[in-house]
UniProtKB/TrEMBL annotation:
UniProt domain ABC transporter: residue ranges: 49-277
CDD domains cross-referenced by the UniProt entry: ABC_cobalt_CbiO_domain1
Natural source organism: Rhodamnia argentea
Top-level taxon of the source organism: Eukaryota
Gene for this chain: LOC115729032
Protein name, entry field: ABC transporter I family member 11, chloroplastic
């Protein structure tokens, strides 16, 4: 756990950056690149997360939990996977996050030009570029203040002032994105409200902006007010990152969804609209 001296040195860097990292400046980090065409036409390159023919058989077993799963999600959009308990949704998320290796298939990011042509070969989606927030993330909080919780695992020795400022900037940006910029960094994470605990769990995953942010049941265990709060936050967040959610809370998330898929028992995935609510 970080020492208080360490925490206060990060606090100082944060205070310094507080005014610089407004949401407007944070948005400049967007990876969608725009340029002017010859006739003033705005063109844009974009990327897409793509899973192709992914299969998974747990080591030492004879059965496939996932079969030929293929789907794609354009950057800065919101995808939702739903389906019966035990159909394999969490198993799929674990593969996407690099926690297990698929038995077959590929998981990558493909870049496209403005006419829809491939720009280079697909890039393997490395686990460092995926953020994942598990169900009930607050159960895994280990620090006794917000700053230590979010900086856990950050370098502690021989940190240059440039690196410190860079990290502090990223942290401030993450706090702005999730609306935590007004809470005290000294606060005990366990004393936050349900919705703010989820915000903190999200901020931890957003310090390094992931190519894909995965959320497993983001509304589970929250009261109605906190659920509405998290939905509002996700609506805002999808302007910044690509979000893939597994959830049974279809009604509340419906307004955010750009693409949805049903996981069938037996481990197959097919694109499907949300069932009537
Ligand atoms: N390593 C493993 N070996 C054998 N079976 C496994 C393994 N991992 C998961 N399973 C089984 O695979 C099935 C799919 O589990 P998974 O947790 O992915 O389902 P789910 O759709 O996420 O369910 P829920 O909605 O309840 O979270 C379950 O029957 C589970 O018991």
């Amino acid at each position: 756990m970080a020492s208080s001296a360490f925490a206060s040195s990060w606090s100082l860097s944060l205070l310094k950056l507080q005014d610089q990292a407004s949401p407007a400046t944070a948005k400049s980090s967007t990876r969608l690149r725009f340029r002017e065409g010859g006739l003033g036409r705005i063109c844009c390159d974009h990327s897409c997360f793509e899973a192709k023919s992914v299969g998974y058989r747990p080591p030492g077993t004879q059965f496939n939990l996932l079969k030929d799963v293929s789907f794609s999600l354009p950057e800065k959009s919101f995808g939702l996977i739903f389906g019966q308990s035990g159909s394999g949704k969490t198993t799929l998320l674990q593969l996407l996050a690099g926690l297990n290796k698929p038995t077959s298939g590929s998981i990558c990011i493909q870049r496209y030009g403005d006419s829809g042509e491939h720009k280079g070969p697909p890039e393997h989606l490395s686990p460092e570029k995926v953020g994942i927030v598990f169900q009930f993330p607050e159960r895994y909080f280990i620090a006794d203040n917000v700053l230590d919780e979010i900086t856990f695992g950050w370098p502690r020795q021989k940190v240059s002032i440039q690196l410190k400022e860079q990290l502090a900037f990223k942290l401030q940006r993450a706090f702005n994105w999730v609306g935590l910029d007004r809470i005290s960094l000294d606060k005990d994470p366990h004393s936050l409200s349900g919705g703010y605990k989820r915000r903190l769990a999200l901020a931890i995953q957003l310090v390094e902006v992931p190519d894909l942010l995965i959320l497993d049941e983001p509304l589970a265990g929250l009261d109605w007010k906190a659920r509405a709060d998290v939905v509002k936050l996700l609506k805002h967040l999808k302007r910044e990152v690509t979000i893939l959610v597994v959830s049974h809370d279809l009604r509340e998330l419906a307004s955010l969804v750009d693409r949805s898929w049903r996981m069938e028992m037996g481990g197959t995935l097919r694109e499907d609209s949300l069932p009537p609510l």
